[in-house]
Amino acid sequence: MTSVPSFPDPVHVRRPRGEHRTVDVERSCQKCVGPAEEQALKKLVVKALWTEFPGHQSEKGLADEACHYFRDKKGDPISPRTVRYWLREETLPSAVHLSALVIMQPMMFMGHWLGRGDR
Which entry of 28, 74, 94, 105 is 20 to 30 Å from 7 by CA? Predict the structure, then answer.
């Protein structure tokens, strides 16, 4: 009997055209970004949110305004609690929300990615 090779990393498995595996992509991204980079990105997201939505004294007010922005402009109904998780650096925004933040604050993110931003 011939043994079937196992593929420990599903990213390397060939798939039929058009078939997507979100979990596999998430795993491959986790390998690319270490804990230090992830923490730096979380801090950058917090800075971008406070810069883009100024005039709030509390994270509750900022979270309310940011969630309305994402709901109205981007059509994605997120809750203020999700934005508060970002502000507390507990989670990172999804790719959709992160790309919206990059569009809002391009120089801040580009400076960081080019090694000229806050660390």
Answer: 94
